[in-house]
């Protein structure tokens, strides 16, 4: 049995902040941000928590599938910016949705969180342990951004999306294959210094701005270019797919240059690469569900299409999933 995505939706907060907005706050330019990253604007919600962003996506996905929250068996939320450290945002969403029959948990895979969660949810469906799993990926990055650090604050945005996973009616559709990787040596280059059990919050940690994203951009960039391209190429090769067989590469939206390197390694032309980094920036676990939701809404993906989802992020974590699209457009 194969698990398949049977509905997909996304949501971003209303507030849009373009690059010029940052010019008055920090030493940066629209030109630098666009040429180095591909980002033009991003959405931020300065009020509310992650579940306020994800709830509309969860409601939309239920409506699209024509089911109620009571039909969901498991809720998995991929995020590093949940409403609270505990309880999980999955539990908070379960209450907000009234999904009384569901258990669930949060999964901290950073930028690869949605891919990790999708594979986990698919295995629950394939094993028969769950009939319907709601997998969400999203982050409220504005809650952990240092708006005085030009090297990080311009890169990220808030947003996320949701999918429903169920057994595929036809074995040839669904989550076909996956490659998931991790290298804990990446912690040194991308992390949140304080706030966890290693360094709980103190007045000093707050004064020293240790609760924000710390990133050594160039080091992460080098690993990301290689990591994302390697797994994307490998998943093509081991499934005997040529560039012509693939309808879309759906890459994590961290930097247009990383995306281009991955597409080039796969031999894919630009018009087969899903890109929305210009409008949303890097929403961490939100990028891939937002991308597939936009492809679906705009009828750019049709039943039977092969799409490759790929990511690289903190951990390091990275991976690639081959999906044969199963929703009628
Ligand atoms: O999703 C999680 C995984 N994260 C990633 O995949 C991110 C990977 N890294 C990157 O995307 C890129 O490394 C960045 C976009 C973060 C930075 O681009 P870069 O081309 O690697 O720039 P850089 O860090 O080498 O910095 C070049 C210059 C520096 O100035 P100096 O030292 O040459 O004088 C920076 O201080 O650009 C400066 N700079 C900026 N200038 C204007 C850094 N940030 C900014 C800024 N505006 N916002």
What's a quick, concise take on this entry?
This protein has 329 residues and is an alpha/beta fold. It is 32% helix and 24% strand.
Mind sketching the topology for me?
Blueprint: E1 3-11, E2 16-18, H1 19-23, H2 30-37, E3 41-43, H3 50-65, E4 74-78, H4 89-97, E5 103-107, H5 113-126, E6 133-140, E7 158-167, E8 174-182, E9 190-191, H6 203-207, E10 214-215, H7 217-238, E11 246-251, H8 256-266, H9 277-280, H10 287-297, E12 306-313, E13 317-324
Parallel strand pairs: 4-5, 4-6, 11-12
Antiparallel strand pairs: 1-7, 2-3, 6-7, 8-13, 9-10, 12-13
Helix pairs in contact: 3-4, 7-8
Defining key terms:
4-stranded mixed beta sheet, 24% strand, alpha/beta, 5-stranded mixed beta sheet, single chain, 329 residues, binds oxa(dethia)-CoA, 10 helices, Peroxisomal Thiolase, Chain A, domain 1
Q: Order of strands across the widest beta sheet? A: 1-7-6-4-5
* Beta-strand residue fraction: 15-25%
Supply the number of helical segments.
Answer: 10
Order of helices and strands: EEHHEHEHEHEEEEHEHEHHHEE
Poorly predicted sequence stretches spanning 5 or more consecutive residues: none
The averaged pLDDT comes out at: 97
Structure description:
This protein is of the alpha/beta class. The protein has 2 domains: 3-167, Peroxisomal Thiolase, Chain A, domain 1 (3-Layer(aba) Sandwich), CATH 3.40.47.10; 174-324, Thiolase/Chalcone synthase (Peroxisomal Thiolase, Chain A, domain 1), CATH 3.40.47.10. The protein is built from 10 helices and 13 strands. It has a 5-stranded mixed sheet with strand order 1-7-6-4-5, sandwiched between helices. Helix 7 runs parallel beside helix 8. It starts with a strand and ends in a 5-residue tail after the last strand. 49% of the residues are buried. The mean pLDDT is 97. Oxa(dethia)-CoA binds at residues 28, 32-33, 36-37, 111, 150-151, 154-155, 217-218, 220-221, 224, 254-255, 258, 282, 313.
């Amino acid at each position: 049995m194969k698990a398949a995505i049977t509905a997909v939706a996304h949501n971003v907060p209303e507030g849009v902040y373009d690059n010029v907005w940052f010019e008055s706050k920090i030493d940066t330019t629209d030109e630098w941000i666009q040429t180095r990253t591909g980002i033009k604007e991003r959405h931020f919600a300065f009020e509310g928590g992650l579940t306020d962003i994800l709830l509309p996506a969860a409601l939309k996905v239920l409506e699209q599938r024509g089911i109620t929250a009571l039909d969901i068996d498991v809720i998995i939320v991929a995020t590093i910016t949940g409403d609270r450290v505990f309880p999980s945002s999955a539990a908070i969403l379960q209450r907000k949705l009234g999904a009384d029959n569901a258990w669930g948990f949060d999964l901290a895979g950073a930028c690869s969180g949605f891919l990790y969660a999708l594979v986990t949810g698919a295995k629950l469906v394939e094993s028969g342990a769950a009939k319907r799993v709601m997998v969400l990926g999203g982050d409220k990055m504005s809650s952990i951004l240092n708006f005085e650090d030009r090297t990080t604050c311009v890169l990220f945005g808030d947003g996320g999306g949701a999918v429903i996973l169920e057994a595929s009616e036809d074995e040839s559709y669904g989550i076909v294959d996956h490659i998931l990787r991790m290298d804990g040596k990446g912690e040194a280059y991308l992390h949140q210094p304080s706030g966890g059990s290693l360094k709980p919050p103190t007045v000093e940690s707050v004064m020293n701005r240790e609760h924000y994203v710390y990133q050594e951009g160039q080091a992460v960039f080098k690993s990301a270019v290689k990591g994302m391209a390697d797994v994307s190429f490998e998943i093509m090769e081991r499934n005997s797919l040529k560039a012509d067989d693939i309808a879309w590469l759906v890459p994590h939206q961290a930097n247009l240059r990383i995306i281009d390197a991955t597409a080039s390694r796969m031999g894919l032309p630009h018009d087969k690469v899903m890109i929305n980094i210009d409008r949303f920036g890097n929403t961490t676990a939100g990028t891939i569900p937002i991308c597939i939701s936009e492809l679906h809404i705009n009828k750019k993906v049709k039943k039977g299409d092969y799409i490759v989802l790929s990511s690289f992020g903190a951990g390091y974590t990275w991976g690639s999933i081959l999906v044969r699209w199963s929703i009628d457009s």
